[in-house]
Amino acid sequence: MKITFKDVGQGDSIIIELNRDDGYNLGIIDCKKYNGTNPVVQYLMDNNVKSILFVILSHPHKDHYSGLLELLEFCKKKDISIKYFAHTANVNPVYFRWFEVDDNATLLAKIITKSIELLDNKLIKHVGYPYKDWGISLGSDSNMISLSPSDEELRRYYKQVKLYKNISPKKCSQAANLLSTVLKITHKDSYILLTSDAEKTTFERLHTTCMDDYLNDKLTLCQIPHHGSLTNHYGHFWNDLQRSVNCPAVVSAGEHGSYNHPEIQVIEGFDRMNYKVHSTNHVNGMADFILQIKEQTLIGRFEAHDEFLDDDNIEADQTFTFIEGQVQEII
Q1: What average pLDDT does this structure show over 9-35?
Q2: Are 289 and 308 contacting, i.e. CB atoms less than 8 angstroms apart?
Q3: Is the distance from CB of 198 to CB of 182 less than 8 angstroms?
Q4: What is the Cα–Cα distance from 174 to 259, expressed in whole angstroms?
Q5: In which order are the strands placed within the sheet that holds 26-29?
Q6: Which of 115, 218, 258, 330 has the fewest C-beta atoms under 10 angstroms from its C-beta?
Q7: Given this model, what pLDDT does residue 302 score?
Q8: Using CA atoms, how far apart are residues 166 and 174, in angstroms rounded to an integer?
Q9: Which residues 6+ apart lie within 8 Å of 62 measured at CB?
Q10: What is the DSSP pairing of strand 248-251 with strand 276-279?
Q11: What would the pLDDT profile of 226-282 be if each residue is shown by its tens digit?
């Protein structure tokens, strides 16, 4: 298995390459357009992809779905089959207006409509909703299961929108992060954790209820939630996970004047817990962290983060292989 976090600036596009006998050797989580391009669609073109095991929209925010309609239209044009299409935006359509601050999520509505069209045309085999315990087999000894959103996140979402819909469209939009998937990809006794923009309260729930069953294996790769936002960071959860030495933690962030992700406190927190932090785009908190490292006088600490000091390592996809429960970065 190979997993690539595409550099799409502030947002997510994740490509998972599999080795299956049925030809469904690709999984996609989120799809964002970036600088006028669509890196996921470009991957399909470059690799002459004929079938996709799954396409998942982690939650209804544009920085995770701005390229998804183009992806579905490309699949229709090239007759590319998708076995599973899944999203967490299957709420009452009246809530679509609260997903985004600047519009009524018309693009998202078009995506949902297009997915139904492809389902009717048999290009999409199954449409599902990746709530807690939803899962699919990825191949021999490998599975993917959703740990969130659960009923608790759904209730929090509806409550927050009802509370703020006449007061703050921004807070209503932020509430959609509660619909974020937390996906666990397992192979034997190890796993990868993909967290999209999951809220701090989600990790508090996972820490309280899931550590002894869902999360009792060894973590070998993880995604830092919400592009390194401090409000989504719950250190107790990440500290208490059993994990490999220098477990890679990937942050997908880009320049954004309003959010300034990733935040320095988050990057420092993962560093103190001995995660090895990787970033698709070294800005904001990452830049501050690099500067801080350069100012350190301890040679050991300087060398430990030498990968951040390479001037060529500024914007790049972050790719890892997952073989027999071990993860290695592809340089």
Answers
A1: 94
A2: yes
A3: yes
A4: 12
A5: 124-128, 81-87, 51-57, 26-29, 14-17, 2-5, 318-323, 326-330
A6: 258
A7: 47
A8: 15
A9: 11, 32, 100, 107
A10: parallel
A11: 999 999 999 999 999 999 999 999 999 887 767 788 999 999 999 999 999 999 987
Q: Is 60 helix (H, G, I), strand (E, B) or coil?
A: coil
Token output for 316: 């790049």
148 Cβ contact list (under 8 Å, min separation 6) = 131, 132, 180, 181, 182, 198, 202, 205, 206
- The mean pLDDT value for 103-125 works out to 92
Q: How far is residue 34's CA from residue 36's CA, in Å, rounded to a whole number?
A: 5
Give me the count of residues in the chain: 331
Question: Could you tell me the domains of the chain?
Answer: 2-330 (3.60.15.10)
Dihedral angle computed from the Cα positions of residues 231, 236, 240 and 245, in that order, rounded to the nearest 10 degrees = 60
Convert the pLDDT of each residue in 14-26 to its tens digit.
999 998 889 899 9
